[in-house]
Amino acid sequence: MPGYRIALRPVEAAEDEGPANDGEISVALDPAPTGLMVGYLDDLGKMERAKAEGYYRTGDVAVRDGDGYITYVGRADDVFKSSDYRISPFELESILITHPAVGEAAVVESPDPIRLTVPKAFVALRAGFGPSRELALEILAFVKERVPPYKRIRRLEFAELPKTISGKIRRVELRLRERDRRGEDHEV
Description:
Blueprint: E1 6-9, E2 22-28, H1 44-50, E3 55-64, E4 70-75, E5 80-82, E6 85-87, H2 89-96, E7 102-112, E8 116-125, H3 133-144, E9 155-158, H4 171-182
Parallel strand pairs: 8-9
Antiparallel strand pairs: 1-2, 2-3, 3-4, 5-6, 7-8
């Protein structure tokens, strides 16, 4: 949009490292665009934190290709690293739901002693399909054919997915469940 200068800022870094080809989508605030909201209802400090370093951080992560096009990856609080590769749950979930047996899916990080975290899929099946080892292996193979090795789903669990009142999947609940199950000492 005219009037908005977009930059990709490192998600973890607090200092300016110059233009990046992947990172959090941020809006330059010098000058501040007129259409930028004034603040967050009931949390005035949140806007100040989001506007630190002269940029408004959107909370969305993206990558820039060689032609300068920016592609959305996912929410900063959902994207995680596995073996130092950035993993987008959104991308893996989009592939999972194209499998004929998968009705809904959510991907979260699961503690791992070697990679620190690995992608784990929670899958709700369509009517007419039942959970089984064979179906789990079929779904894992299906994803494996469609992603590079570092993005492969390493764990899969059939489950009813927790949701908000509006029907959005509560990944935060699944992340906490997985951390509690695997333990902080990364037992597998």
